[in-house]
Automatic annotation (TrEMBL):
It comes from the Bacteria. This is DUF6705 domain-containing protein. Residues 1-19 form the signal peptide. InterPro entries: DUF6705. The lineage of its organism: Bacteria, Pseudomonadati, Bacteroidota, Flavobacteriia, Flavobacteriales. Residues 1-145 form the DUF6705 domain. It holds the Pfam family DUF6705. The keyword Ligase does not apply. Keywords: Signal. It comes from Chryseobacterium herbae.
Length: 200
């Protein structure tokens, strides 16, 4: 009886493993650089259901980072999530970074925080590598069109320092003064020039 139970359990494990097709972040990074990607996509990667950080490249970013820029104090907490699906209906999961941000003014007043938000509500999540850097997507005050890519990269000569800059989405975005009354003077939370953060 014990042998039958063991064999049944073993077969169930094999079947569940067989259903998952694993690829790497490097494969998807390479796909993004293909010259005809916009037209052809990456058909060789279509069956992959789990995109794995096979070489643990995300680990260099994990932790709490602090820095100052433009009169603001920044604290950014990055966590690595394994086999993570941001949407249960997705058929593909990723190893990715999830970020939480705390921004204070020069008097120490909190301007923005996502520190207590759940993983799927932080609006700051990783996508993939571009050479040495890692690209994340951030949404702050969406009514003022604050959304875009955040590029992070640790320094070669000092892995406890990280460069960060934000590139705001521009294409196809429309807002009105009623949605964002201070749109003309609105400043994004994250700097659009390089900021240096130090690992705590």
């Amino acid at each position: 009886m014990k042998n039958s139970l063991f064999i049944l359990t073993f077969l169930c494990m094999i079947l569940s493993c067989k259903a998952q097709v694993i690829g790497s972040l490097e494969q998807f990074e390479e796909c993004s650089r293909r010259p005809n990607r916009d037209q052809e996509g990456c058909p060789d990667l279509e069956n992959i259901t789990y995109v794995k950080d096979a070489n643990n490249r995300l680990d260099q970013f994990v932790g709490t980072w602090k820095g100052n820029y433009g009169g603001k104090q920044y604290e950014i907490k990055l966590e690595k999530k394994i086999n993570y699906k941001s949407d249960p209906s997705d058929n593909r999961s990723f190893d990715r970074l999830i970020g939480r941000i705390l921004v204070k003014d020069n008097s120490g007043n909190i301007i923005y925080t996502s520190m207590s938000k759940t993983d799927n509500k932080t609006s700051f999540f990783g996508d993939n590598f571009q050479h040495r850097g890692y690209v994340m997507y951030f949404v702050g005050n969406y009514k003022c069109l604050e959304s875009g890519n955040v590029f992070i990269e640790t320094r070669l000569n000092n892995p406890n320092e990280m460069k960060l800059f934000y590139s705001q989405d521009k294409d196809g975005l429309i807002t009105s003064p009623s949605q964002c009354p201070n749109f003309e003077t609105f400043e994004p939370l994250l700097p659009t020039e390089v900021m240096i953060l130090t690992k705590q």
